[in-house]
Amino acid sequence: MYINSIISKLVDQYDDFTETEKIIADYFLKNKKMDDFSIRNMKRKIFVSEASLSRFAQKIGFRGYREFVYEYSRIFTTPQDKDYSSSSVINVYEQILNRFNTIIDIDQIKRLIQYFKAYDHIHVIGIASSGLAGEEMKRRFTRLGVLMESCSEGDLMKIQSLLMTQRNLVIGISISGTSDEIVFALKHAHERKARTVLITGNTEKKEYVDELVCIPVLENLDTGNIISPQFPVLVFIDLLYNSYLNENQNTLKLQKETVEILKGK
Predict the structure, then answer these.
(1) Topology of domain 104-263, per CATH?
(2) Rounded to whole angstroms, how far apart are CA atoms 158 and 135?
(3) Terminal-to-terminal C-alpha distance of the chain
(4) Mean pLDDT, residues 105-113 taken together
(5) What GO biological process, any one, is recorded here (predicted)?
(6) Apex CA 188: angle with CA 182 and CA 191, to 5°?
(7) Domain residues of the chain, as ranges?
(8) What is the CATH number of domain 5-101?
């Protein structure tokens, strides 16, 4: 076990918490120092009731809030827990990787690979760090002979979306799934009969998205709360990349040749 089991429980059960319980969990996940965790102080600090604190503690396996606080406080008083901050980051990575085992859709990955073969023009779009992930996707697949373009400039991707046709595949990356520029581009590309894909942590289906790729995320991951918000995106790209290699053995030769060319720079 990488870190204190309490932190592991908070991360693992986060999606099952009520909104009030998430407020409590957020406090204890973000906190980095010993403090007054008494009911009286917590009621004043995060504006929740005593009953809410009690239910929260019981939900993660404790008899009551006092027992939870006792165990949580050991993070800061036990010598082996001094590396709490870095350990919590490692644990979040671990939790997301574990969730990939249950959320990943192998058939969907196979369909995406077929799209890469079927479409003449592939466009990957994303804003800020999602744009960086899109650039990484472009670089990796271009080395396998899949020609992609990436765009992280909002105005440009809006203009490009108006030029899409049925020969285009547009892949949007947005952890929240609500980025204005991404939504605009996918909507207008879809209206022009382009195939649209959205890689996101938002499971809500959208009529302008032909293929919704759901990746495991944590609350507020799009703001870089605990780890880099693009970690699950990059993991999915790795899965997609590996599957493409397995189904297209002839690309291994091209990959090796590309590596040799880059080494010879």
Answers:
(1) Rossmann fold (3.40.50)
(2) 17
(3) 44
(4) 94
(5) carbohydrate derivative metabolic process
(6) 135
(7) 5-101, 104-263
(8) 1.10.10.10
